[in-house]
Amino acid sequence: MAHVEMRQVTKSFGTATVIPPLDLDIAKGEFLVLVGPSGCGKTTTLRMLAGLEAVSSGRVSIDGRDVTHAAPGERDIAMVFQNYALYPHMSVRENISYAMRVHGTDKAVIAERVGEASRLLGLDPYLDRKPRNLSGGQRQRVAIGRALVRHPQVFLFDEPLSNLDAKLRVEMRTEIKLLQRRLGTTAVYVTHDQVEAMTMADRVVVMRAGVIEQAADPITLYERPANRFVANFIGSPAMNFLPARVEGGAVRVGGQVLPLPPEEATRLGPRGQVLFGIRPEHMRPSGHQASLTLEPQAIEPLGPHTLVLGHVGGERVTAQVDPRFPVRAGEPCVVPVDMTQAHFFDPVTEGRL
Ligand code: ATP
């Protein structure tokens, strides 16, 4: 039995259905990340789990208990928001203990829980400070501390790092992940940042327009995206997509011929029109190498590698090459393509072939 279950859950605002029937199972101790473009329904899904938004139909259960109509306070969950909304006039200690004090929790228990949270989060030196005297990362840790002291069954995070600068985001995502592992608490985390999703999740759920496009571990998502949308969303720079034909054991792209590895040729057969997908980082030498002639428009040296932005036929293509790879803007160049890493999608349904 799943720890958290959403069964045929829907959400409508007026006449607009933003979540058609959705099924989601989250295992005990799992770190699940909901990711997708703005407006795809991530936050709405999380808020329905939290009880902050009523479901229009369907059922939500936590640890086997039906909580579909339970108030947020009766669900044994704790939520950390993007805007951490700390009480400015209260110290860190008072902020962390606020909910327990309001509930009349025993003083000794409060002291113990605050001590435990502040130790875990490295907040001991700041307990008597006011939020205005803390850095963004420290404030975010206080917000997490507030959730932690409740010892919830489930943590819900709604883009908790989006107000932090890039360096702090990277540090905090590691901290949150380690903390969740140590506590073994089930977590559901919403972000629109695919790197955050990939690095933190045990399992990533990619959503579009309220629908789950794919739910899988990060590596599966990267290596075997279910469709063009997922393939385009996961990976940076994004996968290249080229209209192509598969025939005679090769991919034909704008007059160029890229031979397929024999087993791929057999699997695909004479397929005709396809959408050929290749990631920029897979434009590299390999045992099953083909090559593609590119008209480079721009060269972007990033240090460890260089991005070549150009065209094949009329289509834009980005290749990630070695910094020493000989290439000049305006001069056609031949880049290797690792055909063992090629992806193929149906040109109409855009599903993986
Ligand atoms: P973002 O990354 O921008 O936060 P999201 O994936 O979290 O997006 P939601 O906030 O869940 O998306 O919104 C999903 C859809 O529901 C959007 O089209 C949004 O406009 C709509 N929506 C959300 N809340 C309401 C509301 N209270 N009334 C009407 N429509 C709403």
TrEMBL record:
One of its GO terms (cellular component) is ATP-binding cassette (ABC) transporter complex, substrate-binding subunit-containing. Keywords: ATP-binding, Nucleotide-binding, Transport. GO terms for biological process: carbohydrate transport. Residues 4-234 form the ABC transporter domain. It comes from the Bacteria. SUPFAM superfamilies: MOP-like, P-loop containing nucleoside triphosphate hydrolases. Coiled coil: none annotated. The keyword Methyltransferase does not apply. One of its GO terms (molecular function) is ATP hydrolysis activity. PROSITE patterns: ABC_TRANSPORTER_1, ABC_TRANSPORTER_2. The keyword Lyase does not apply. Belongs to the ABC transporter superfamily. This is Putative ATP-binding protein component of ABC transporter. It comes from Rubellimicrobium mesophilum DSM 19309.
